[in-house]
Design a protein that fits this description.
By secondary structure, this protein is an alpha/beta fold. Helix content is 37%, strand content 15%. It folds into two domains: 8-247, Aspartate Aminotransferase, domain 2 (3-Layer(aba) Sandwich), CATH 3.40.640.10; 250-383, Alpha-Beta Complex (Aspartate Aminotransferase, domain 1). β5 (171-175), α7 (180-183) and β6 form a beta-alpha-beta unit. α2 runs parallel beside α9. It is globular. The mean pLDDT is 96. The structure holds pyridoxal-5'-phosphate.
Length: 384
């Protein structure tokens, strides 16, 4: 039986990991070393220098590739460093088409770093793919998408986007951080590069910062490995070890994230103080059908607004939680809440923000894997 035929949970535990050849250790050791002794000039065991490749990182790169049905994986010091390496595939004069609804840090690296290097970014509403087609010209090289989006959980049609990208000979990169490979595999839908902030669900325990890129195409992968080695934004072996450990429960955690997400979304929808609930599992969600086509479940991220939309009241509610804690980030075992209008999206002008639903009373949950009953009781008392 080939490892490719294995189901997700089996791959999460076994893919990429072999017993250590030197000792038989079942867990990949933390190869905390910068260099590797060579037997003779030009003769080594596959590792020369840890920037180029380290055995602990190598095991993780293989594991992540397997989970995304990819051939190649590359890890970076952060999710943003992974995106940075994709942008280094481009040169001055090239153009990128991306979404209006991006992770804030992605928006910043595009506009505050790479525009200065002569790369042009078009921000379009990807709900309607004709907006993407309209911006394509001979300089276009990359389409960059993210789905579900933050914080209003829009779903972008990846198959449709991939068809456009293929027809025009472009590279399609997809940030799969919110969905994880448990819920969605963009490469199978036609993307060329999948990116993860490993910091979130893949690590899963809020104890590391890391990024990754997964690819099927050898040509693109070779360029990415060249950039990884020559610009050096790699993670250390200890962090790779922690993610290898985290991955072993990814499928179990995701099942609970989804189950808790569903219960909380349904509870919020019935609550008299709640105005809108953003969760792709509801039939009224504008992209519910696309979510059903490309995702296996709806995940643990959701947002909601309060009736009356009063910032003071929202603040009072946010301060009243006892289990949900106020913090940036997401995807860990513990439930977090954030306030997009003053945190992740504070830099976006108020009218632009409100046009996409990010009103003052919008609260985003990263639903953890605690007992749903306790989480719902916490929401009940905070809203009261
Ligand atoms: C967190 C995040 C990033 C950035 O990743 P870091 O690991 O923080 O550098 C990119 N995209 C999304 C969707 C994220 O949530």
């Amino acid at each position: 039986m080939g490892k490719k035929d294995l189901k997700f949970g089996t791959k999460a535990i076994h893919a990429g990991v072999e017993p250590d050849s030197a000792t038989g250790a079942i867990m990949t050791p933390v190869y905390q070393t910068s260099t590797f002794v060579q037997d003779k000039v030009g003769q080594h065991k596959g590792y020369e220098y840890s920037r180029t490749l380290n055995p602990t990182r190598h095991a993780l790169e293989k594991a992540l590739a397997a989970l995304e049905n990819a051939e190649y994986g590359a890890c970076f010091g952060s999710g943003i460093a992974a995106i940075d390496s994709v942008l280094k595939l481009l040169k001055a004069g090239d153009e990128v088409i991306t979404s209006v609804d991006l992770y804030g840090g992605t928006y910043r690296i595009f506009t505050e770093v790479y525009e200065d290097f002569g790369i042009k970014f078009h921000f379009v509403d990807m709900d309607d793919l004709s907006n993407v087609e309209e911006k394509i010209n001979t300089k276009t090289k990359l389409i960059w998408s993210e789905t579900p989006t933050n914080p209003v959980l829009s779903i972008i049609d990846l198959k449709g986007l991939a068809a456009i990208s293929k027809r025009e000979g472009l590279i399609l990169g997809v940030d799969n951080t919110f969905a994880t490979p448990f819920l969605q595999n963009p490469l199978d839908l036609g993307a060329d590069i999948v990116m993860h902030s490993v910091t979130k669900y893949l690590g899963g325990h809020s104890d590391i910062v890391m990024g990754a890129l997964m690819m099927k195409d050898k040509n693109i992968a070779e360029k990415i490995y060249h950039i990884q080695n020559n610009t050096g934004a790699i993670p250390g072996p200890m962090d790779c070890f922690l993610v290898l450990r985290g991955l072993k429960t990814l499928h179990l955690r995701m099942e609970r994230h989804c189950e808790n997400g569903r219960k909380i979304a349904e509870f919020l929808r019935e609550h008299p103080k709640v105005d809108k609930v953003y969760w792709p599992g509801f039939e009224y969600h504008p992209n519910h059908e696309i979510a059903n086509q490309q995702m296996r479940d709806y995940g643990g991220m959701l947002s909601f607004s309060l009736k009356g939309n009063d910032l003071k009241e929202a603040n009072k509610v946010m301060e009243s939680f006892e289990i949900f804690t106020l913090a940036e980030s997401l995807g860990g075992v513990e439930s977090l809440l954030s306030h997009p209008a003053t945190m992740s999206h504070a830099g976006v002008p108020k009218d632009e923000r409100e046009a996409v639903g990010i009103v003052d009373s919008l609260i985003r949950f990263s639903v953890g894997v605690e007992d749903a009953e306790d989480l719902i009781n916490d929401i009940k008392q905070a809203l009261a």
